[in-house]
Design goal:
It contains 10 helices and 15 strands. By secondary structure, it is of the alpha/beta class.
Length: 332
C-alpha cells in the first residue's frame, strides 16, 4: 500500500494567511483537551551539540486525542543567528497516525513555533489578565515576540504598547513593524523599567546569554499579569512572593530540566505543586478558576507545549487541503 505525507514548507504556511482568530482558536482547543485529560505530553528534552555554538535543540512530543494526531517537533534555538541574518529558531513538525505510527505530515515549524507561543501568551491574557487591561509592556523583540504582541492586542486593543530589547536597532525596528501592522503607535523604550513599570500585562521574552535579574519585582503593578518565559531567567526570586496565583502550561515540564525563567523558583520551592494554582488548560476547560478579581496579581509561566504545535499544525493542514496548498510526497 502506498503511503503519502503532506508537506508544507515555509512559503506554503505563509500562503495560508492564518487569521489571528484561527490561530487562537486552534491553540485554545488544544489547551481545553489538555485540561480535560485528553492528551499525552512528554516533557521536552534538549540536545546541546557544543556550548561554543550558543544554541541547542528542543524535542517536543505529544498526542491530542480529539484531533486524532500525535506529533514530534524539533526546534533549534540559537541566540547568535541574527548575526547571520537568520531566525533564532528553525523547526520541523512531524505528525503521525497515533494508532499505527504512520507518518502523515511534515511542516516547517518555524512560524508555527512563533504563532503558537504568541497564542498561548494571548490566552494567558484572556483567562488571567484584567478584562480592562490597556497597557502592555513587552521585553524581547525576536522570534515569538511579534505574535505575543499582535495576538494580545487582538484580544485587548491596548491604549499603550511599550517594547524593549537589548539592541536599539532591534527594538526600534520591532516597534516600527508592529506600529504598521497594528495600526497604532508602539513605543520602543530604552530600559526594562520604562517598559514594564505600571503595565497591566507584562511579557518577558528576553534572550539572555545567562541568568540575570533585570526585571525587578518592585516594578510590577498590583493586579497585573506577568508572563516570563525566557530560556534564561530575567526575574528576581522575590517575583513569586507577590503573586496571588501562579499558573503554568504544563507542570511536568516546568518542574524539570535546567532551563527556564523560573528554574530557580522551582529549585528553591517557591513554585511547587503546593503553591501552583493550575495549568492553563485546566482554566480553559473550566475546571479551575482563572482571574477572580481585579486586584489579583497573577503569574503565568509557559515553556511551550507540543500539544500547541500539533493543534496548530493540524489546523494548518486542514486549511491547506481546502485551499490546495502544499505538496504530497511519496513515503513508501
Amino acid at each position: 500500500m502506498a503511503i503519502y505525507i503532506d508537506y508544507l514548507n515555509g512559503l506554503d504556511i505563509e500562503a495560508l494567511a492564518m487569521s489571528d482568530d484561527e490561530i487562537i482558536d486552534a491553540i485554545e482547543a488544544g489547551l481545553i483537551a489538555q485540561g480535560r485529560g485528553e492528551t499525552v505530553i512528554e516533557p521536552r528534552v534538549h540536545l546541546e551539540p557544543d556550548p561554543a555554538f550558543r544554541g541547542h535543540f528542543n524535542v517536543l512530543r505529544g498526542y491530542v486525542a480529539p484531533l486524532d494526531a500525535a506529533g514530534v517537533k524539533i526546534v533549534g534555538d540559537y541566540v547568535d543567528n541574527y548575526k547571520l541574518g537568520l531566525p533564532s529558531e528553525f523547526g520541523i513538525l512531524n505528525l503521525f497516525d497515533p494508532r499505527t505510527g504512520t507518518p502523515r505530515a511534515m511542516l516547517d515549524a518555524t512560524a508555527i513555533t512563533d504563532m503558537r507561543t504568541g497564542a498561548v501568551t494571548a490566552l494567558g491574557g484572556k483567562y488571567l489578565a484584567r478584562k480592562g487591561s490597556k497597557v502592555l509592556g513587552h521585553v524581547g523583540s525576536r522570534g515569538t515576540a511579534y505574535w505575543n504582541v499582535r495576538l494580545l492586542d487582538h484580544l485587548f486593543d491596548f491604549d499603550e504598547i511599550r517594547v524593549h530589547s537589548r539592541r536599539p536597532e532591534s527594538r526600534n525596528g520591532f516597534a516600527e513593524r508592529l506600529s504598521a501592522d497594528l495600526g497604532k503607535p508602539v513605543k520602543a523604550v530604552d530600559d526594562w523599567q520604562a517598559c514594564v513599570e505600571g503595565a497591566d500585562i507584562v511579557v518577558e521574552a528576553s534572550r539572555l546569554p545567562e541568568p540575570q535579574p533585570l526585571l525587578k519585582t518592585e516594578w510590577i503593578k498590583p493586579g497585573a499579569l506577568v508572563m516570563p518565559y525566557g530560556t534564561m531567567s530575567a526575574v528576581e526570586l522575590s517575583l513569586t512572593d507577590i503573586m496571588d496565583k501562579m499558573v503554568v502550561d504544563d507542570w511536568g515540564q516546568c518542574k524539570g530540566g535546567k532551563l527556564g525563567s523560573l528554574r530557580a523558583h522551582v529549585e528553591s520551592g517557591r513554585l511547587s505543586e503546593q503553591t501552583l494554582h493550575a495549568e492553563l488548560g485546566q482554566v480553559a476547560a473550566g475546571l479551575k478558576p482563572g482571574r477572580e478579581s481585579d486586584d489579583e496579581t497573577i503569574l503565568f509561566w509557559h515553556r511551550g507545549l507540543s500539544l500547541s504545535d500539533i493543534a496548530l499544525g493540524k489546523a494548518m493542514l486542514t486549511k491547506a487541503q481546502e485551499k490546495g496548498i502544499g505538496q504530497r510526497l511519496r513515503f513508501a
